[in-house]
Amino acid sequence: MNIALPAELPRLSPRAPESHKGTFGTALLIGGSVGMTGAIILAGRAALRGGAGLVRVGVPARCVSVVASGEPSYLTIPLPEDRSGRISLSARRVIERQLGTATAVAVGPGLGRSDGLDALVWWLYEVCPKPLVVDADGLNALAARKGLLGRAPVPAGPRIITPHPGEFDRLVGRGKLPPEERFALQRELVQTFQAVVVLKGHRTRVSDGDKLYVNPTGNPGMATGGSGDVLTGLIVALLCQGLQPFESAVLGVFLHGLSGDLAAEELGQESLTASDLVDYLPRAFRAYRQALASQEKGGS
Length: 300
Description:
The protein has 300 residues and is of the alpha/beta class. The chain has helices at 37-49, 64-69, 92-99, 115-127, 137-149, 165-172, 179-193, 227-240, 245-267, 274-279, 281-299; strands spanning 26-30, 54-60, 75-79, 104-107, 132-134, 159-161, 196-199, 205-207, 212-214. The protein has a 9-stranded mixed sheet with strand order 3-2-1-4-5-6-7-8-9, with helices on both faces. Helix 1 (37-49) runs parallel beside helix 8 (227-240), helix 4 crosses helix 5 and helix 8 (227-240) crosses helix 9. The chain is globular, with a radius of gyration of 18 Å.
């Protein structure tokens, strides 16, 4: 597929011959629960396909064997759990130790909901010194605590939040909004959570309050469970490779959508699954690299 790159699309540097896994960072992904292990597996696989040098996946202890069987290339971290098989608030100590070696962190895929998880996500949002991506039930946790306390957490490091329209509405707290109102409020949400906001959907919009990127890739076949988990893992991988938060979000949504377009071209939109998005990421990266080379050749 010949593709045209948007002028504002970030350039991911080519890999030097002397590179090693440490060159491309360590991704730490926190999520999963009994019955929702697939989400964190997808995010972990996407972080690997997205180029992170090392991927660690923190999940409830009883979910470790299932998550480990989903991909042999990431490491699993057993976390303390509650009676329902969700990560418990007592996991803070284990997570805190892991933050020291992480380059970038994500929380949310398959997390589930509990009062303890709401407190855990709020704590992580406030104290994590590394870039943090929050998705899925991580966003619902932020929305619930914000409503209770009347404020958003003040982050210690860079943040990216990736709400779909329903999650966006819960974060704003003004009921169900029409699309044009979400667009108008996106910058307000950036300021409230001091984060890059990725408003997912048709023509996904990425804003840091100053810059706005509207993504041209993607198709309706990507409206399937797990698609957002793949995006979370991909953005974390790009952060691990040295891109800034806004750049990581912009390139992440572009490659994510391109992967979906490449998959739909061969498989059709109706049969697309989130696993296909991971599987087609290598082709998306290759098309991106070829388009970059073509641009550079044309400009020389």
